[in-house]
Specification:
single chain; 397 residues; alpha+beta; 3 domains; seven-stranded antiparallel beta sheet; six-stranded antiparallel beta sheet; 8 helices
């Protein structure tokens, strides 16, 4: 199977409203600011490709039902890193074993208790996953010299005051810099409007509402993978190293969400690491929202058996022994293709870790691609991008 890999950069030219919740903190809508879901990027891309006759309506319909592409979430990066940052390698979601300090100055630095250490505890056979996790956190917190934290907080003595001085970083967008990984957050603001009473020509009573929006100038990056020979693969080849003007989120008819989407092919070795089949136990790192569709769609849970597929080709069957990071969220959407609301789904949040045992392997080389292709067809909508890891990519204390 030949897989094409593209890096995309999404630069907001006008304020963007990518709604996340309603009726929160007195606002009608809050926005997803740490990342933009892959389905939003895909919808904007497909709409523009259709308008430029790069693909047909039939192509878009087939790709929706039987996708030969995947689109990762767009993660926020500082402007100075926008042209060079590679998703997963330079910008990622902080995982469930990461933490940061409340007293950090500037962009908080993110550290980890260590995925590799957790696996070592489990593989001794003395601990179950939950016991191993408790032992890991207890030992690291108890034994780590405060000097190891000197670059993480302005005053390392603050670490000694209370365990509440550290907090989970799970789900935060983090970028790599010279000193490790730091949190990256876009700038947001609030847009307030009121409905107009058409009969009186003045503000309607009780109709004040507000949107939180991402400010123009913020930049996000992600990956698009394609299966060779598909219409979308051919279309992206013709737009390689080009930019499209697209519209993302709500209010596009009022000028919101106008963005520049730039696409360039990249060497797969910059993203894909060879898969080492020398072990049966791995930690599954969720590089996007994650759910299991083998059965009733829902969050990945302990005991689930998942068939890992890359563009329809079965790579392996895995069993989930434990899920670390139990926060879930629900996603709602609207299909431009059908004009109907999408089925709401509950998913594991980005950054979730799952201890997984490989039961059967059919093509181990494809397991290395799941970070860019996902492990089932929902990756075309921005879900189920995972990486099989045994070594932590975040600095371990």
């Amino acid at each position: 199977m030949e897989i094409g890999l593209y890096r995309y950069r999404l630069e907001l030219l006008t304020p963007a409203i990518v709604t996340s919740a309603q009726g929160y903190r007195g606002m009608s809508y809050t926005t997803v600011s740490k990342y933009i879901l892959g389905s939003v990027v895909r919808g904007a891309l497909f709409s523009q490709l259709l308008s430029e006759n790069a693909i047909t309506s039939a192509d878009a319909h087939r790709e929706s039902l039987n996708p030969s592409h995947s689109v990762t979430p767009a993660l926020h990066v500082p402007r100075e890193k926008a042209d060079t940052a590679i998703p997963i390698k330079d910008v990622a979601f902080a995982h469930a074993l990461t933490f940061m300090f409340k007293h950090a100055t500037g962009s908080p630095r993110v550290l980890s208790f260590g995925i590799d250490r957790l696996l070592q505890y489990i593989e001794t056979g003395k601990y179950g996953v939950e016991e191993a996790l408790k032992e890991l956190i207890f030992n690291v917190t108890l034994n780590t010299d405060v000097k190891a934290f000197k670059n993480a907080v302005s005053n390392p003595i603050e670490v000694l005051k209370s365990s509440t001085e550290m907090k989970s970083a799970c789900g935060s967008t983090i970028v790599r810099d010279a000193g490790g990984w730091v949190v990256s957050e876009p700038s947001t603001s609030i847009y307030v409007e009121t409905a107009v009473d058409r009969a009186r020509g003045s503000a309607a009573s009780g109709a004040l509402y507000a949107y939180e929006y991402i400010e123009p100038g913020n930049t996000f990056v992600g990956l698009i993978a394609t299966q060779s020979g598909s219409p979308i693969a051919d279309a992206l080849k013709s737009y390689d190293k080009s930019c499209l003007v697209v519209r993302v989120g709500r209010g596009v008819g009022r000028g919101f969400g106008i963005s520049r989407l730039c696409i360039e092919s990249i060497d797969q070795s910059k993203v894909i690491d060879p898969f080492d089949l020398g072990n049966k136990l791995y930690v599954l790192y969720a590089a996007s929202p994650m759910l299991n569709i083998d059965g009733v769609p829902g969050p990945v849970m302990t005991g689930d058996e998942i068939t890992v597929k890359v563009f329809g080709s079965t790579a392996a069957v895995i069993k989930i022994r434990a899920v670390i990071g139990r926060h879930t969220t629900k996603y709602y959407g609207w299909s431009y293709r059908t004009g109907l609301p999408k089925l709401p789904v509950e998913v594991n949040s980005p950054g979730t870790l799952a201890v997984a045992e490989i039961l059967r392997v059919y093509n181990h080389e494809l397991l290395a691609y799941t970070v860019a292709t996902g492990f089932n067809s929902l990756s075309s909508q921005g879900f189920n991008f995972v990486k099989f890891v045994r070594q932590d990519f975040v600095e371990v204390v």
